[in-house]
Write a structure and sequence with these properties.
CATH class of the largest domain: Alpha Beta
Shape: globular
Order of helices and strands: EEEHEEEEHHHEHEHEEH
Largest sheet: 6 strands, mixed
CATH architecture of the largest domain: 3-Layer(aba) Sandwich
Helix content: 25-40%
Strand order of the largest sheet: 7-8-9-3-10-11
CATH topology of the largest domain: Rossmann fold
Length: 240
Amino acid sequence: MIDLAIDARRNGFHLRVECRLASAWTVFFGPSGAGKTTLLRLLAGLDRGEQGTALAGRVILEGRVMTDTAHKIWIRPGRRQTAFVTQHTGLFPHLNVEANVAFGLHKLEKAQRRRRVDEMLDLVDASELRSRRTQELSGGQAQRVAMARALATGPRLLLLDEPFSALDGSASDALLERLQHWARQNDVQTVMATHDAADALAIGAEVLLLREGRMAALGPASQVLAMERERLRERLQIAD
């Protein structure tokens, strides 16, 4: 469960959201520039109100305060048990696929580390890529490996920002289904930002609809997206 009360400003953009995310899987949905990525970064602890950003508010994950500007509390990203996967994979070019996935597992014994890498590569259907150099990977393959690396650390909260953008529809759907099953089995709360309504509908997620930095709706995907379709239809009729 995540409790949010965020008021952030940067370069003329104002994000203000206050809500509770209680669903196992929540989708941030809205047009480009609505604030989806900004909100994910605040959840991940990557924005502290520096570099021209004014930030106020709090983030509470499973009863633990992650950010509270009033009391000057800010838990570092590495200690939040949070994994953040974006469409830009950020794989280490000097390491092969196996070493990339094993990167955050230095506290495990060698045999445990290898088993974890095997499990995660199998989960994302990338076992055959184990020995590949990152420069040899396609965009979709790199996204699979980045996902395996994030999941290997055993996060309590998984944040996804358009993580399957380089995969075709069927491959994306299959990976999304596998990922949802894994998250449910391991009790990992997941928040995903997407502009594709089909993703939200396919997994029956809760949807937080963002519009110009504000929460326009929060609820089951079928209800929220139906309301948004009707709103857009009415706007088009008025414009005609």
